[in-house]
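My current task is to audit a protein record that another person submitted. Thanks in advance; the entry in question is below:
***
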Amino acid sequence: MDPLSRGDRSALRAWTGTRLGVMAISLAVAAIWSYGDLKDSFLGRWTQWDVDLFIEIAKYGYRGDPSRPPDAGLPAFFPGLPLLLRTVHVLIPSWQLSALLISLVAGAVAMVALARLGGEAGPKTVFALLLSPYAVFLFAGYSEALFLAFALPAWLLARQRRWELATLCAMGAACVRVTGVFLAVTLIVEFLAGDRRWRLAPWLVMPFLPVLGYTLYQWRRTGDWLAWQHAQQAGWGRSMAWPWAALRTTWQAAFGVHDQFTGAFRVELIAAAVGVALTGWLLVRRRWAEAAYVGLPMVSLLTSAFYLSIGRATLLWWPLWLAIGAARRPVYIAVILIFLPLLIEEIVLFTAGSWAG
């Protein structure tokens, strides 16, 4: 990326300030629930759910901890973050701290790229994302920050028609999450819509190579060409379903029963509606590549057995944050006022070990 501009520095200040705010809230929660024993609780409270699984893969590979029964869901996680965790761990003895530091550095890179995409509205765009309810996962050692650190520069470079660098960044994104496949398709659509220098077209194949490599690796390890899909089903019960069946199952989980996941499924329904509306808006505005980037994953998410992690997926929808950042001031302020209490709630839920997305 190019040298830092004033907007870049503003994005970095926003990233640093909001991350300090998240830390302060989590420390307050730890102080109340751990009776002041902060030293032993802070890193543990930020090592929840998927973070544990990323660390397990980094430590033992996809066979998992040999002292415990095999976890059939581990192949659902792409190897980019576990490999980086293993590398950082050489310098940082704490696996938990290594995960947080990766998200910290990756998030800073991502916010600079997002600010550049937003232009004059860059600072507002960055704040909208960082104050959104699921921004808690940009602080935690999840894969969203690392994915965005590759995906946002890839899209920025694609808009600049710097295809060689764009596809290399997209390769990094494809090492981190399966969403990299949709990013690869997005670059192809953008190329066809706005460039068509055919001598550069072979570069567009590059982002698919990490996914192919991971598929081959899991096949060699398990003998299963569909190891990733089967891990999704084994670990989380995610299988293909008709969209109306998926909606019915999710609706029943959101309103038919009352348990610890009731609120989460209601959020999933809202996020799904936002995703569909955003895709439609992008299509109407003829922003074909961005429509593909949001719409193709939505097809996958809406045809799963039930809606899961759509709320968290909003972190990756940069067209949404660009639209909010460019909104009129009253609309923008209203959105932020809605976001803030939800973000605080998510921080409390996550650090308490509850399901938060």
Notes: The mean pLDDT is 94. The chain is about 70% helix and 0% strand.
